Amino acid sequence: MIKVGIIGAGRIGKVHAESISKYVSNAVVEAIADPLMSEKTRKWAKELGIQNIFTNHEDILNNKDIQAVLVCSSTDTHSQMSIEAAKAGKHVFCEKPIDHDLERIKKVLDVVEESGVKFQVGFNRRFDHNFKAVKKAVVDGTIGEPHIIKITSRDPLAPPAEYVKVSGGMFLDMTIHDFDMVRYLSGSEVVEVYAMGNVLVDEAIGEAGDIDTAIITMKLENGALAVIDNSREAAYGYDQRAEVFGSKGSVSVSNDKSSTMVMSLKDGVHTEKPLYFFLERYMQSFSDEIKEFIEAIVNDTPVPVSGIDGLKPVLIGLAAKRSLIEGRPVKLSEMK
Ligand SMILES: NC(=O)c1ccc[n+]([C@@H]2O[C@H](COP(=O)([O-])OP(=O)(O)OC[C@H]3O[C@@H](n4cnc5c(N)ncnc54)[C@H](O)[C@@H]3O)[C@@H](O)[C@H]2O)c1
Predict the structure, then answer these.
(1) CATH (one of 3.30.420.40, 3.40.630.30, 3.40.50.10840, 3.40.50.720) for 2-117
(2) I need a surface site. Which of 182, 184, 226, 270 has the fewest CB within 10 A?
(3) pTM passes above 0.85
(4) Per residue in 46-83, pLDDT tens?
(5) What atom in ligand 1 is closest to the CA of residue 12?
(6) Beta strands 262-265 and 119-121, pairing class
(7) Ligand 1 pocket mutation pick from 19, 71, 95 by most atoms within 8 angstroms of CB
């Protein structure tokens, strides 16, 4: 049984704790730490059977029984927490993004290498049943050589401007998953990015220095082209679709719904809306990514999403930011 410590008891820390207790039979949450440990969270943790509830993450790192740490705290703490955990000899699962700064990410990867621990990054969409099916059709050659990758990724509700200010901007906070998806589905690397963006949803997002609507086009190393369209707010809900078009055909996936019901009436034909947001849409992927992290520890095999997989989407995101500011395509080689 792998004993796990969770740093950060916010939304995603709770998702992982619950997934482990329900679905990961060879792991147990031994401790959870958060400086803002409310009574409500304490009660939730106790009900889940978590024995140790701390306000300081060091109590997790000092616990010799804990073999693996999940870094689920706010983004600005990820790189430091990962470094401390790796130095303490713990295997690390780090939520996305590792950091917004490439030098700090490289430092994390160096420490991980020196410590010899496992390090997995939380790009959960790679474990989603839909996107895995697309990936399979690409890898087994069914659709031939990939030529075009299209990702639609729109949130159901824009975040508050206060969140936007500390988020690193839409490309590093939201599109980062889509940049990872482009790499994952194509099996290739992005070499050039051209981003256009605007503020069409909420003026406060613009005042906070960000955009809420974007189209990003990319050239890949294997010659394929990719396009991502993003909105912070789609009126009909969380819109998560992908298509890979190749030399022998195309493969696409649509949104998951709570049922496949089709209601045909006088005024039209109605179906369910997409599942509301990431907590509804991606629950299966959140538990599968942790299952595979634990399997990699138990079997001493490579983790399915590496530190380099964590670094590359940040690099693409920074190139997209530069492209938006400078109004031109940016090569990734410029980003060194
Ligand atoms: N993979 C995904 O789809 C996904 C989804 C949501 C969030 N995330 C990532 O997870 C991270 C957390 O997001 P969230 O939505 O859970 O945020 P949240 O604000 O709900 O939770 C963050 C928690 O971290 C705690 N924290 C801050 N500093 C800490 C410290 N020093 N030690 C321990 N805990 C500390 C905060 O008190 C808070 O409770 C973010 O980096 C976010 O990008 C990833």
Answers:
(1) 3.40.50.720
(2) 270
(3) yes
(4) 999 999 999 999 999 999 999 999 999 999 999 999 99
(5) 16
(6) unpaired
(7) 95
